[in-house]
Automatic annotation (TrEMBL):
Cited InterPro entries: DctM, TRAP_DctM-Dct_fused
Keywords: Cell inner membrane, Cell membrane, Membrane, Transmembrane, Transmembrane helix, Transport
Taxonomic superkingdom: Bacteria
Protein's name according to its UniProt entry: TRAP transporter, 4TM/12TM fusion protein
GO cellular component: plasma membrane
Keyword RNA-binding: no
GO molecular function, one term: transmembrane transporter activity
Membrane-spanning residues: 31-51, 63-80, 100-120, 132-149, 155-178, 199-220, 250-275, 319-340, 374-396, 402-425, 432-451, 471-493, 500-523, 529-549, 556-583, 589-606, 618-638, 644-670
Function as written in the Swiss-Prot or TrEMBL entry: Part of the tripartite ATP-independent periplasmic (TRAP) transport system.
Principal location: membrane
Location(s), subcellular: Cell inner membrane
Species of origin: Microvirga guangxiensis
Sequence ranges assigned to domain TRAP C4-dicarboxylate transport system permease DctM subunit in this UniProt record: 142-639
Length: 723
């Protein structure tokens, strides 16, 4: 396994814990820490094994996952922030340094989580007619789940869930269209606890089936050196050019985001290298932090790993993960392209240099020393695009990480890759026929490496630690997914989702009528205006909700409540889902709670709010592109009405528009821009981006005077330079 700077790793983890609520673990006494690490390791091994040998019965698999996740949360998260940073002594009331109440809650929530799988054979007779024990167990789980989510994620999600349950209970007292017959507490518990439409629903299932495996793969791939390889390759490609470290940040974040799927983890990992380098070549501190955080938010939208919401999309829309990956390609490119062009123009305007030659790694040496680390990603993609399930692809990706991390012997690496290719080609890569030999092989390889030398022991220990850390990364999102199941369950129980959709579309129609009376006749149809206002309101709610709710929970809530409104207006389902997904991710760099931007600001010693504002401006391409693919869905490639002509029109217009907008923000194209040039080309960018040929041509006509002026000034400047 590649050597990792231990001090840098510890510093990165501390930054993640500071800015990511899901990573703020309390310090533990040695004995308790070993127990918790053991439970985390068992959780990872459970998911690794089931990914390769077949999932358990749905309720059993989800119940075991939730029992571990929620039980561990009460052990690793303190009830109050004041206790989060100190090790408590062990005594009668604090066994192992953890409150006796926390131990009781951890055991109780585990029992309540496993109760449904235990009574599964009788569940058909219980649904709709729960026993007193069912209601007691369900109430226990709901209360402790809300508390676990509060500790690991924060207050907003539990508050929303409590509000939804109160809405279900007091339905007859609700005003107007929101009124409904109401439900007793027994009925609420029955729906949320005993059916698959509540806590044990799709959200928890996706996290337990897909997300956990890919989080674990990302941690392992980083440990074996894939992240370092990506950053070194990005430095080789972009480091020498103007403002080199900022461009390295963008390329590195894009590549690292392929295996990370986390904005904050991406920011602190890549930023630990790029932010100091950006400051050193002349970028302002807040701009350096903003570049890294803006680029890092692309991690959740960059195939093949993406964020947890991408896997949820697979289940909600009943499509393959390969389809989601294909749909995400162009919008992800647009995000990084927008950040890159603003960084480029800023560097040219300020006259910033690239990295000196002595600081650039040798590309041949980087590839020669690190080529093996790309194998896990290659294996994962090879299995995934051969038609196998995403979790089986994750199993083979994780297995490849173990092989690469422990052996680092080219013959073994190539042999393992060849074996996978032969198994796929001959159709033997099933969850039983080929998984057992692979598991025995990696187990033997780890034992051999451990007993052979001290270096081998260190590699195996580091590998085990990666399994523990991978489980730590996933427990917060597991609690959030289960809590979102409460919200989704109340929506299906009361039908409030359709009511909210009706309210939103009705309000948007009223606004469209008011604006339509002002606009010139025929400029925009009423239906198009209604859709525009609905999209704007949905985007604002996504960003506001994202200020206090993780991206995954944000996506599920908005898909449940807002996406139906978009579908009612004729938006294709996959387009509607991508729209709310992208705006949920954008919250990570949108003040006042821009967690990724604040993490970058901390690393740069910059003002957090100023960093957040700049990061939002740099990520504006991500804010505009969702509107583009709603009106021009060909950008997503996989839509039914896709044609290459419409794809080229939509994509070409978006690229040109983002380019013009980047010039306007930076105040530079070929030379410095005057105020009128910045305003005109900024205004022209919007019609250029619009996926309509006539509108795009109007925008290009508006931008032409600015571009001509820039060419004339650039030629004049070149002519004035002495030969």
């Amino acid at each position: 396994m590649s050597t990792v700077d231990t001090s840098a790793l510890i510093e990165n983890r501390s930054l993640e814990e500071k800015f990511d609520p899901e990573m703020r673990f309390r310090p533990l006494l040695p004995g308790t820490a070993w127990l918790v690490a053991g439970l985390l390791l068992v959780l990872s091994l459970f998911h690794y094994y089931t990914a390769g040998f077949g999932l358990l019965r749905e309720a059993t698999h989800r119940g075991i996952h939730m029992a571990f996740v929620l039980g561990l949360i009460f052990l690793v998260f303190s009830a109050f922030k004041t206790d989060q940073d100190r090790i408590a002594p062990s005594n009668l009331w604090r066994p192992g340094g953890i409150s006796l109440i926390d131990w009781v809650m951890a055991i109780a929530v585990a029992i309540a989580s496993l109760y449904v799988p235990w009574i599964f054979n009788d569940l058909a007779f219980r649904v709709g007619n729960p026993t007193l024990m069912d209601v007691a167990m369900g109430t226990t789980l709901i209360v402790l789940l809300l508390e676990a989510t509060r500790r690991s994620v924060g207050w907003p999600l539990p508050v929303i869930s409590i509000g939804m349950m109160l809405y279900a209970y007091f339905g007859p007292s609700m005003p107007g269209i929101l009124q409904h017959p109401g439900a007793s507490w027994s009925n609420i518990v029955n729906h949320l606890y005993l059916t698959s439409q509540g806590i044990y629903g799709i959200a928890l299932g996706v996290v337990a089936t897909y997300v956990f495996h890919y989080v674990l793969f990302g941690v392992l791939a980083t440990r074996v050196g894939l992240g370092k390889l990506f950053i070194d390759l990005a430095t080789c490609v972009a480091g020498r050019y103007a403002g080199g470290p900022a461009k390295v940040s963008i390329f590195g974040s894009a590549l690292f985001g392929m295996i990370s799927g986390s904005s904050i983890a991406n920011t602190v990992t890549v930023g630990s290298l790029t932010i100091p380098a950006m400051i050193r070549v002349g970028y302002k501190r807040h701009f350096a932090a903003a570049v890294e955080s803006a680029a890092s938010t692309g991690g959740q939208i960059t195939p093949p790993i993406m964020g947890a919401a991408a896997f949820l999309m697979v289940e909600f829309l009943n499509i393959s993960y390969q389809t989601v990956i294909l749909a995400a390609l162009v919008p992800a490119f647009m995000h990084f392209f927008g950040v890159f062009m603003q960084v480029h123009f800023e560097a040219k305007r300020a006259g910033l240099r690239g990295l000196p030659a002595e600081e650039l790694p040798n590309a041949r040496k980087v590839i020669r020393e690190g080529w093996q680390t790309i194998m896990p990603l290659a294996v994962l993609l090879m299995v995934l695009f051969s038609g196998f399930t995403p979790y089986l692809a994750a199993f083979w990706g994780i297995t490849a990480c173990i092989v690469v991390g422990v052996s680092r012997v080219p013959a073994i690496t190539l042999g393992f890759l060849a074996a996978i290719a032969i198994a796929i080609a001959t159709g033997f890569l099933t969850q039983l026929v080929f998984s057992l030999p692979a598991l025995l092989f990696v187990t033997g390889l780890m034992i051999y490496a451990y007993v052979k030398s001290d270096e081998g022991k260190a590699k195996v220990i580091d590998l085990i630690d990666a399994f523990v850390v991978g489980a730590k990364y996933a427990i917060g999102v597991g609690a959030a997914a289960a809590t979102v199941g409460i919200i989704v369950g109340i929506v299906t129980l009361t039908g409030v989702g359709f009511k909210i959709s009706f309210i939103v579309t009705s309000f948007a129609a009223q606004m469209a009528q008011a604006v339509g009376d002002i606009l010139p006749a025929g400029l925009m149809e009423a239906k198009a205006l209604t859709l525009l206002f609905t999209l704007a309101m949905t985007a604002i709610v996504c960003i506001l909700l994202g200020c206090g709710v993780p991206t995954t929970a944000n996506y599920i809530i908005m898909v449940t409540v807002a996406a139906p409104a978009l579908v009612l207006l004729g938006v294709q389902p996959i387009v509607a889902h991508f729209f709310v997904f992208y705006y949920g991710v954008l919250a990570d760099i949108t003040p006042p709670v821009a967690l990724a931007a604040y993490a970058g600001a901390s690393m740069a010693g910059a003002d957090p709010f100023k960093t957040g504002n700049t990061a939002f401006r740099l990520g504006l391409g991500k804010a505009l592109v969702p509107f583009v693919f709603v009106y021009g869905p060909a950008m997503l490639i996989v839509t039914p009405d896709f044609t290459w002509a419409s794809f080229l029109l939509v994509t070409g217009g978006a690229i040109a528009g983002i380019l013009c907008l980047s010039m306007a923000f930076a105040g530079y194209a070929l030379t410095e821009m005057r105020a009128w040039e910045r305003w005109l080309i900024g205004i022209a960018a919007l019609p250029i981006i619009a996926p309509d040929l006539q509108t795009t041509l109007v925008g290009l006509a508006l931008a032409t005077p600015v571009l001509v002026s820039q060419v004339i000034k650039a030629r004049g400047r070149m002519a004035s330079v002495p030969a």
